[in-house]
Structure formats: C-alpha cells, structure tokens
Amino acid sequence: MDIHEYQAKELLATFGVAVPRGAIAYTPDQAAYCASELGGTKWVVKAQIHSGGRGKAGGIKLCGSEQDVQQAANALLGMQLVTAQTGAEGRIVHRVYIEEAKPFVRELYLSLVLDRNTQRIILMASTEGGMEIEEIAKNSPELILQESVDPAIGLRPFQARKLAFGLGLQGKQVQRAVTIILGAYRAFRDLDATMLEINPLAVTADDQLLALDAKMSFDDNAMFRQTQVNEMRDYSQEDPREAQAAEHGLNYIGLTGSIGCIINGAGLAMATMDMIKHAGEEPANFLDIGGGASPERVAAAFKLVISDASVGAVLVNIFAGINRCDWIAQGVVKAAKMLNLKVPLVVRLAGTNVEAGKKIIADSGLPIITADTLAEAAAKAVAAYRATRK
Ligand code: GDP
Ligand code: MN
Hints:
This protein has 13 helices and 18 strands. It is of the alpha+beta class and 390 residues long.
C-alpha cells in the first residue's frame, strides 16, 4: 500500500525527521489560503499522486506569490499527471501540497528498502540526490552508499554516522543527518514499511537538513495493526478494479491478457494462469475468490472480471473443498444472466457436490462450455477466445 508525500512527511515528522512546513489543499482557493497562512514569499505547489517523477512531469511548481500558488493549484488539480512511473493513463491529481520553499545548497538521497535476498533492511544514500537518481543508480552504482541492518540489534548509530560522513557532511550537519537516518529507520520498522525514500534530502544554506520529498510503501498484510497508516489509504490512486475487489473481500490483481480468471485458491489460480499461457494466451487477471464463496460473491467476482474491456473469454476453475460446486454454479448462472455475458464462458468444477453443480450449469440454458480437467479448461478457453477473433 502506498501513501501520499504529505502523509509520509506527517508520519516521518513524528519520528524526528525534519520536514518543511506545509498544508494540503483540494481547491485553488484553499491553496492560496494555505500559502498566506504559511507566510513567507516563496512556495512549492506539489501534485499529490502515488508516483515519483512528478518534477520532470510538471507536477512540482515553484511560486513567488499567492496568486501564483492559486494558478499553479488550478492547473494541477483535476489534471491527469503522467510520469515515468504511472503508465500512459497517469494519475488524477485530487490534492496539492503547499510548502514553504526552502533554498538549498545540496540535494542528497536516502532510502530504506527490504532486501529479500539477505532478508534485511538496507539503507542507501547518495550525494547525487534530486531527479536523476535512477540514472546514477544505473550508470554509477559506486556513488550509492549502503548499510545493511542486523535484525537482532537494529540500526546502530555508528552506521548512521558512517553514511553521514560518506555523504560529505560536516560539523552540525552530521548530527542532524544521524537524527534523520535513525528516525527514518524507526519509522520504517515501527510502521511495517517496505520502502521509504527521501529524495531530495536537502542541505540548506544554514546547515539544516530537510526532507523535501518523502515516499513510503507499506506491507498490506500488516495493515490490520497499522490503523494510522491504513486510514491514509487513497483508493482514487489505486487500480479501480483492485479497489472494487478489496470491497468484496476478493483477492484480485489486474493483468494485461485476454482470458479473465475466476478461481478459488491462490495456488490453483497460479496453476491456471500457467496453463492459459501454455495454451497460447495471457491471463487478464489473478483472482482468488477464497473458500466458502457464496453465490453473491461469485457474482461480484464475475462483474469485476468482465468490467475489464480486454477480457475476451472467462475461465471459471473451482476445486471445491470448503466451497460447494452447486453454490458456485448458482453464482455463475446468476451472474451470466444478470450481466448478459457476451464473451465465451468456460467452467470447470471439481470436488464437493460436483454433480449438482454440473446439473445447474447444464439446465441453465446458457451456452456455457464445460471441462473436466484444468488443461482441458485452459485449452477450451483459449480456443473459444480465438474463435471470437476470427
Ligand atoms: P518527484 O519528482 O516526484 O521526486 O518530486 P520532488 O518532491 O522530489 O520534487 C522534484 C524537485 O523539485 C526536487 O528534486 C527539488 O529540486 C524540487 N523541490 C521539491 N521541493 C522543494 C522545495 O521545498 N523547495 C525547493 N526550492 N525545491 C523543491
Ligand atoms: Mn523526489
């Protein structure tokens, strides 16, 4: 789960990370009011979307008057901002963050990630912060300093000092950087983050260190115990299909293929996706409807899968252990009728009450294609899809 820059800064500030003063606005008038409340003569107006690379995409505007702030907010709000990270559809800007603009002399880079290979939190830092960090990482990886955290003892202050010296910081800057690095680490650990990036970490003319930008991602599976973070969720920034799935307790991940999948069990879903590829097409989604799915839940799953315009055939593959095939069949028939399904539908049922399930499908009067095995179901779905393309 991702959150906005201003939310990450709000969280980081409670861990002692220095951030500029700022305020959030949903309208241009609010933006101008925020600027006057913050005071000063220069502000940055920053588009809040779940993506980096906003600066290069025109999502960050430096303003010299309240009128400028209002105009910048007016231009950004409602805009579909396309960055190098969003894909062609971009993300809609619903909020702008107004910050006092701090002049700085250096832009540093600091990030924490979970390294799955070593199973440790890794800190990365670089003197080359700012908007070109991806190129630096690719072309001059030696400019990225790293420290790995021993999970049994946590981040040691000497490691933070080592990074601070490595960044060429001096005098009072060193202790300020150490406070920020240790604070960022505690935020990462205590909030179940999977990624935290401060870029740029600015050094100001008067030796202050400030997080001018902040990004954080979190472990979805930990959100049950991170209510403060979970409340920051912004569904408008997420794949609408995935948001809809979450509402019905369905485990859905949107993909780019043409065969829509409705399956129970994550393992069976993975195997079915493999079989679709093996048969020559690509799955349009991963979907695990879970055990004990009611006919209503199956119908919701159907609606979700076919709401994707690239779905050219639907494959239902259920192995009913906890589930019951007759319930699934009822849900399938109900959904196919209610949604007036236009694409071919292949159903493979196995397990509890399979005969009753098959009878419901056969008696439905719908042109449902049935299969007995997984391989047969995948092959039939691909064949049916291709037949519609001819
Ligand atoms: P990103 O492009 O999505 O990573 O957005 P950033 O928040 O990092 O902004 C892009 C660039 O705008 C930064 O690298 C800075 O150079 C500049 N910038 C961001 N915030 C401020 C600020 O408060 N003051 C000034 N002067 N520049 C800023
Ligand atoms: Mn940035």
